[in-house]
Sequence to fold (398 residues):
Amino acid sequence: MLEASAESSWIEIDGSALRANLAAFRGVLGQGDTNHGERKLGIVLKANAYGHGLLETLTVVHPLVDIIHLISPRDALLVRKYEESRQWPRRRLLVIGATSPEEFVQLAEEGVEVTLGDDNAVAAVAALQARGLRAQAHVHVETGLSREGFFPSEMRTKLAFLNAPECPFEVKGVLSHFANTEDVTEQQYALQQLKQFDAGVTSLSALLGKNSADFERHIAASAATLVLPQSQCDFVRVGISLYGLWPSTETRLSAKIVLPNLPKLQPVLSWRCRSQIVKKLAAGAYVGYGCTFRCERETRIAVLPIGYYDGYPRILSGRAHVLVNGHRAPVLGRVMMNHIVVDVTGVTGDEGQVVATLLGSDSGETVSAEMVAGWAQTIHYEIVTRIGSHLRRIVIDQ
Fold:
């Protein structure tokens, strides 16, 4: 039976799959690279946990990881508040996104680690000093993504404030982000980025008069963790694959070659919707706006109260199918703001309510995020992260 819910549409989060994916990555750490000690497992809960629900995902993974990465300072403060409400021990949190001077103060007050990746850090110095606060910080090195961070050659000038008396920032780590590990099976550009990363660590070490080993280094997200063992450094930042999704086909192909044992990733998210109406239409009847679909025969349809407002892409009009009773039910006509119409002829024998699976499995059939992304001419990252945050997430264990 499918999970019951008071809402017409809801998201199911498989807690056992989340735990299995974490265990799989614990097994990946260190494979293929024996020149490094034990690595820590970090995860990324940005973008509402890739659409899976920040707090719902947190409830499962919190005791099982070493460090949690977030993009938004607001999300980090929410996690701290949630930990307090549940009387959980504080987990290491690191904000790797843009942070205003005021947010640097708020994060320092809550013991959240911060990233120095732009000039806002300089503006935060006085505010932190005025409050008598210190913040543990990670310096972002620009290695070739052309986003945040400091080039190794400019650290001596742009980060000189770190050597000033009473500087409130204690540099704990150094990070960067790969630009092109997922779309290729050769990693020449990534290897160049690793060299640039090492140069950044060396430059920062010289600036602060420390050894490179004094800093925690991290650059590997899901794909690099799987296909570039040497990039795992001191800890990794597992994002999309925490949720059971391979970063790309190329990543999976490369991992088969690189890793002694290919991890089995289990998709975590299922999206269900109860029908609003099930009824018969006569041959010749039109369906939906623009009259883009006309029934060639008597057709039983199910109207589902879900649409592009909820994150079901409009481009899926006439292209996609959902699952009803373990069978494929094609989407008829246009995806509307709050509705889609699917063909359930032969799938159900009456006009009783049905439950459709928009993403996930039902009786051996599956509609995967990769499949929907293909219909929508995009990537599965976008499909899951754009599922409406207003939809209820329910943690289940299967």
Observations:
- The chain has two domains: 15-256, 269-367.
- Confidence is low (pLDDT under 50) at residues 1-5.
- The domain at 269-367 is CATH 2.40.37.10 (Lyase, Ornithine Decarboxylase; Chain A, domain 1).
